[in-house]
Amino acid sequence: MRTLWWKIMALALVLAASITALRTPLAPAIVYASGGPFAPGGNSASVIGYRTHFMAAPVRVFLENGGQFVEASSTVVADDTHLTARFEVPVGLREDMSDLVVVAPGHGAMRLFAAFYNPEKGTGAVDGVTDAPQQGERAGFVFPNRNILYETIRNLNFHVPMWFTMMLLQTISFVFSIKVLGSGRWLDDRAAVQAVNASLLFAILGLITGSIWARATWSGWWTSDAKLNGAAVTVLIYLAYLVLRGSVTDLAKRARLAAIYNIFAYVLMLLFIMALPRMTASLHPGSGGNPAFSQYDLDDSLRPVFYAAVLGWMGIGTWIFNLQYRLARIENRHDEERLR
Amino acid sequence: MRSEVLQLLRLEVALDLRQRAAWGGMLLYVVSAMYVCHLAVSDSLSRSTWNAIFWIILLFAAFNALARSFQREDQGRQLYLYTMAHPRSVVLARALYGSITMLALSLLSLLFYLLFLGSDPMGDASMGPFVASVALGGVGFAAVLTLISAIAARAGNGIGLMAILGFPIVLPMLLAVMRASQLALDGSGWSGTGYYFLAIGALDVVTLTLAWLLFPYLWRD
After folding, report:
1. Mutation for A interface: B148, B151, B209, most A CBs within 10 A
2. At B18, is the secondary structure helix, strand, or coil?
3. A29-117 belongs to which CATH class?
4. Any idea where the domains of chain B sit in the sequence?
5. A284-300 per-position pLDDT tens digit
6. Which chain B residue lies closest to A177 (C-alpha atoms)?
7. Per-domain residue ranges for chain A?
8. How far apart are CA B180 and CA B106, in angstroms?
9. What is the DSSP letter of A73?
10. Could you give the ipTM of this predicted complex?
């Protein structure tokens, strides 16, 4: 029982986080607005929402341009997810692109960024603008509904924990490799290779979940991206580590060579991963000029689920390593008894 | 320590002067690779392709050149060296000699490359950063690949294993020098490429420190 609690906790966390990640509804959001350039004068746009309830509530529709709001002069709601709004666009709006803001009770303020092009830039409208609308409360526990991501945002709770777990296992392997050089014990060497094996399992899972996500959002199974290069290098390094082990038959020599390569490769890999985002463009959030997830996720509903998933998967990874390590220890004892 | 490194360095030079064919072989490898590219490419190349081909050739030349640094000695001479010198002096001397070799090889390669594939893409390059990126690239490959060469030689599996072990590890260096030389080709000066030279320098320091720390464990048998 003494060593059982963290395994139960890891399982519970993964289970809870996975169920929450798949079951939590997305926040209502505006996903599409038609309409060409909005020149000054009358313009109408048809708006499509996702998980919205336009029928149930008095809906107010606004344009926002450079901090100035223009309310729709008329709004026709077709059903829960479709409406048509007509705007009297004033002269002199400041920015190139106007955002569409829809305020509905229980939905908060839903915004479609850069929805309409403003062909005639000015220095700010004088007439026909209103104050910023009240934000309104958003009801319930929902995930953020982001452009391009939409429902795939749930994958954050599966894809990212895989990489975190992989890094943890590689760090464990690194520590055991240092111990090999110090002690020369075969058991430490076996621990190092078992941690690498487990880390490769999580790397493969990370690659699969990432590839599916990339197909859905960036429309390619593999894209040229700093983080993807980092992942490729990491997998190649540890596959090379296994090849190196396979090509040496002398056990003591194998332990030492593998440990040296592991230490060398781990440090360089860390440097690479830290320096890389500054060298090449990235589509990932939080690098290459893209905003991080925390900036999207203002209501913090994704954060606890994500942290639970990370902790849980790290626990599962450590558990896998722990089982293999114990197996290696039994094998080691068996070998020693046979030699005696 | 310093005099020991210098003596070992002198030994390397003497050994290489005795085997001049090896040097000729390295140069011939580069020249033939470039000649093949010359035959394969009929039109004038874009700047980025020109840059990429150069670095690919130089990368493989570096693998070839640095594989020699540990693989040419037999068991007997290794044992002799082991009794005579500190392993850290050995690895420093080898890394230093590898760097000098690669410096010469990369600059010579650039010369042949300009000869065979034309210098049109260098039209509005800033020469200082470009030549510096080529020189530092060669030195950086040497710094990274010296320890890998030693590991591969110890594993007794020759140049095949060295390529497998070295490729993922040399990638950060390769990426940094390729970006630096590309920027220099596009005409950006020291201020634009400075970050990459800093990164290359930092990588050199880290790899040499790691080699210095780890080599004694590799050396003893």
Report:
1. B151
2. helix
3. mainly beta
4. 2-219
5. 765 544 555 555 554 56
6. B214
7. 29-117, 150-339
8. 15
9. S
10. 0.87
